[in-house]
Amino acid sequence: MRKLGLRGVYPxxxxxxxxxxxxxTYPVDVVQRKxxxxxxxxxxxxxxxxxxxxxxxxxxxxVIDAHSRRVIGxxxxxxxxxxxxxxxxxxxxxxRGERPAKVILDTDRGAPQTRSPRSPTSADSRARxxxxxxxxxxxxxxxxxxxxxxxxxxxVWPTKRGxxxxxxxxxxxxxxxxx
Length: 179
Prior knowledge:
Elements: E1 43-53, E2 56-65, E3 71-77, H1 82-96, E4 104-106, H2 111-114, H3 122-129, H4 138-150, H5 160-178
Parallel strand pairs: 1-4
Antiparallel strand pairs: 1-2, 2-3
Helix pairs in contact: 1-3
């Protein structure tokens, strides 16, 4: 590989970014890592990640359908308030037509998914979007590992606008076409 000028791609060191809100109550984990139940719109998996640009940080919220493993909703913004977290499921519902009566949104137990001090509590948004029942989101973590390792870390991001457009295009044109 060295003679050919090739370098392997490997993930960066793991850094914990989830801050669990210990004061909030969480539902029982009814999914228990059995995400794919055989049909669309039964279990959605969501998470938030951070993207660094020369202009500052961006936050990405995603919703993945556990059956198809496609990103069916996503939002990118400069803040991590409740409306960012609500925008990704809203996009998923728009894309899929109507929200199924019993969809479960499986997220980690980070504070942004439960409440944000800079915005209305996400407990309100959770009641609107989520059927309670889970809090393990390894599938979403896997998506972000793929995004970062195969795409985001391989480039320099001078502007937030450029990063937003490129990540959105990668999700729709590359990732979703493979899953």
